[in-house]
Specification:
Layout (H helix, E strand, L loop, with lengths): L1 H23 L3 H8 L11 H9 L3 E4 L4 E4 L2 H21 L7 H30 L4 H36 L9
Antiparallel strand pairs: 1-2
Helix pairs in contact: 4-5, 5-6
């Protein structure tokens, strides 16, 4: 009886392990979607993104009301960064192997850099807007942000684009990858 229970317990552990493993071992198409296509969230990184957000009405999702509500620009930018963090966590949850390592590492590198820089740069600019800084001061801060980040973000996007293109070709994924 004890031997049967031990075997049953072992089988249950193996089943549980395979279920957990299958949740993070995704198809090449799903891996491509999460690691490469989600980078579109960062396509306006820098002045384009900041200016777009500063021209929009600042809103965040209020869980208690189950709807978007007016907020400060600082909270609006923090809300967007939290959404990027969520996508970044989805990327980090994918089991890395020899097949997907290059695309996952390039995607993680891009998201980690963008999120860190948005926290360092976007949030102070949003605070300036909330505190009614002059448009000239805000535009100078945005220009300074671009000067210090644009080359690096472009390099990281190119690295991800190249990894995504190779991954898509290897797995026959029909994807148009920008120039």
């Amino acid at each position: 009886m004890k031997k049967t229970l031990n075997k049953s317990f072992l089988v249950l552990i193996l089943i549980a392990a395979s279920v957990v493993s299958s949740c993070t071992n995704l198809s090449p198409e799903k891996t491509f979607e999460i690691a490469a296509l989600n980078s579109n969230l960062l396509s306006r990184f820098g002045s384009k993104d900041i200016n777009f957000k500063l021209e929009s009405e600042p809103q965040i999702y209020d869980e208690t009301q189950k709807k978007m509500v007016t907020s400060s620009y600082y909270d609006y930018f923090k809300f967007d960064i939290a959404n990027l963090d969520t996508q970044f966590n989805r990327i980090k949850e994918i089991n890395e192997d020899d097949d997907n390592r290059e695309i996952l590492q390039a995607s993680k590198d891009l998201f980690a850099y963008a999120i860190a820089k948005e926290k360092e740069g976007y949030l102070p600019i949003a605070k300036m807007k909330d505190e009614k800084a002059s448009p000239g001061q805000i535009q100078k801060a945005i220009a300074d942000f671009d000067t210090t980040t644009q080359n690096e973000i472009d390099t990281k996007f190119t690295k991800l684009k190249n990894a995504a293109k190779a991954y898509a070709e290897k797995h026959n994924i029909d994807a148009e990858i920008g120039a």
